[in-house]
């Protein structure tokens, strides 16, 4: 990134109009099809937009960028025609897909990192992701051990040899505890040099510590290879399909709560979007995500970065601001907005996440009877998987202030979510449903007919 920017900044004939970065989690989420001959997905991709009044000059610059990538064991591809350029940028346009599995709910902390420190920042995030992954797998082993230690009542019939069941449960618990012990060892020794870890000493020339060995995928911590396949061997046979299904269900349940961090950058200026998809109805997951945010902010400051990127300071960043900064803003706000009309109470002393609220489509599913009887389910389903990416704005121009049309597509979805919550609250408290809610629904719907 630094070499590309330095090279193009020196040119008087060519301009770097855009330089976008996607990490491997985004590459997977957007369904990126690798253009290289290699089988594996890339660790990251850079998409650059180069502009010039001279076609030959821009061609030379693009070729030089490919050479810079080649020197670092990367590969480069050049799109010349408008159609091929559009295809290149489509992957960048799909980044909202990172939160598809959480109904578009995510924590987005954008920070700005000095360009020469972006590699260290990415390494720090990789380290955090590896820790979060191991912790999630350890939680899974705990759940599976607890399950194996329960009385499997569904197997208490004459057709199943109880001694055989007992023996298989003991084998499974032994496997789980041994694997758990190994994963705990990895977690505690991530910073240890490979020379000091006898079983990995042959790798010490290529990697400085255990973290780098795991980061490179030379060492994999695998649920599939280390637990799933051995457990399927232990519980092979028709009489044990129920046990295997319960194991799969527990894995799916625990995996759903796994926190991970994905990065995409406006790499030319060091603005890094640090995204953490979370399920808004999973309190423990939200707490884990918040702990990760604390470490992300500390990492940004450690690298001489700043916690305010292009999205500015939001309610999730309030706790990381010093008192002087908060008071300075409060004084400025009081001067220009003495009546407190603009974003009332936001970014002022006492604001932050304590009063934050979000509708949860996960929790709405639990009210299925009311939802189906009232036809609210159809409304909720129509908006629950919206990525809020804004791509529909050109086709849905309902934000026209001079015509008193004040709903952007995203605001319509947020407003509808809140109205569904209000409807469900009144239905369950039996206070009677206010017809004013339907007036509000009509207000939102009327704007859709423009």
Would you spell out the secondary-structure blueprint of this structure?
Blueprint: H1 2-9, E1 14-23, H2 24-29, E2 44-52, H3 55-71, H4 82-93, E3 106-112, H5 118-148, H6 162-188, H7 210-215, H8 223-234, H9 241-256, E4 262-266, E5 271-277, H10 283-302, H11 323-336, H12 361-364, H13 368-373, H14 376-383, E6 399-400, E7 405-406, H15 409-429, H16 436-447
Could you please describe the fold and organization of this structure?
- It is a single chain.
- The chain has helices at residues 2-9, 24-29, 55-71, 82-93, 118-148, 162-188, 210-215, 223-234, 241-256, 283-302, 323-336, 361-364, 368-373, 376-383, 409-429, 436-447, and strands at residues 14-23, 44-52, 106-112, 262-266, 271-277, 399-400, 405-406.
- It is an alpha+beta fold and 450 residues long.
- The chain has 3 domains: 2-93, no CATH class; 103-312, no CATH class; 361-447, no CATH class.
- The chain has a 5-stranded antiparallel sheet with strand order 2-1-4-5-3, with helices on both faces.
- Helix 5 packs antiparallel against helix 6 (162-188).
- The longest helix is centred in the N-terminal third of the chain and has 31 residues, at 118-148.
- The protein is globular.
- Are there runs of 5+ residues with pLDDT below 50, and where? none
Overall average residue pLDDT: 86
Taking the sheet with the most strands, its summary is: 5 strands, antiparallel
Strands of the widest sheet, in order across it, are 2-1-4-5-3
| DSSP summary, beta strand count | 7
Shape descriptor: globular
Features:
single chain; 450 residues; alpha+beta; 3 domains; five-stranded antiparallel β-sheet; two-stranded antiparallel sheet; 16 helices; globular
């Amino acid at each position: 990134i630094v070499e590309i920017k330095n090279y193009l900044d020196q040119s008087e004939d060519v301009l770097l109009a855009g330089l976008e970065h996607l990490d491997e989690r985004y590459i997977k989420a957007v369904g990126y099809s690798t253009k290289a001959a290699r089988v594996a997905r890339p660790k990251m991709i850079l998409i650059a937009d180069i502009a010039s009044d001279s076609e030959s000059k821009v061609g030379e610059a693009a070729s030089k960028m490919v050479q810079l990538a080649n020197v670092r064991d990367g590969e480069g591809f050049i799109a010349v025609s408008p159609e091929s350029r559009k295809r290149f940028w489509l992957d960048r346009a799909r980044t909202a897909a990172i939160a598809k599995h959480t109904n578009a709910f995510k924590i987005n902390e954008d920070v700005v990192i000095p360009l020469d420190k972006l590699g260290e920042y990415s390494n720090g995030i990789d380290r955090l992701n590896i820790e979060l992954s191991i912790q999630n797998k350890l939680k899974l082993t705990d759940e599976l051990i607890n399950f194996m230690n329960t009385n499997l009542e569904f197997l208490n019939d004459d057709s199943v040899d109880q001694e055989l069941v007992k023996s298989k449960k003991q084998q499974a618990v032994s496997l789980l505890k041994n694997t758990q012990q190994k994963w705990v060892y990895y977690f505690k020794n991530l910073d240890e040099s490979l020379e000091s870890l006898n079983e990995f000493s042959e790798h010490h020339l290529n990697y400085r510590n255990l973290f780098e060995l795991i980061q490179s995928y030379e060492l994999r911590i695998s649920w599939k290879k280390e637990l799933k396949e051995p457990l399927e061997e232990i519980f092979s046979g028709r009489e044990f399909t129920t046990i295997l299904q319960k194991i799969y269900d527990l894995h799916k349940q625990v995996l759903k709560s796994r926190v991970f961090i994905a990065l995409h950058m406006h790499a030319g200026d060091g603005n890094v979007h640090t995204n953490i998809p979370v399920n808004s109805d999973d309190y423990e997951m939200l707490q884990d995500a918040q702990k990760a945010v604390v470490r992300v902010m500390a990492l940004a400051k450690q690298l001489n970065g700043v916690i305010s990127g292009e999205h500015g300071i939001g309610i999730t960043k309030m706790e990381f601001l010093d008192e002087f900064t908060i008071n300075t803003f409060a004084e400025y706000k009081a001067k220009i907005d003495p009546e407190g009309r603009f974003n009332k109470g936001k970014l002022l002393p006492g604001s932050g996440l304590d009063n934050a609220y979000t509708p949860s489509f996960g929790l709405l599913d639990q009210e299925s009877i009311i939802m189906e009887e009232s036809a609210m389910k159809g409304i909720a389903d129509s908006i629950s998987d919206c990525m809020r990416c804004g791509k529909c704005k050109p086709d849905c121009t309902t934000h026209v202030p001079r015509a008193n049309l004040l709903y952007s597509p995203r605001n319509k979805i947020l407003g509808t979510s809140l109205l569904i919550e209000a409807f469900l609250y009144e239905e369950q408290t039996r206070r009677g449903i206010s017809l004013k809610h339907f007036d509000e629904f009509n207000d939102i719907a009327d704007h859709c007919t423009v």
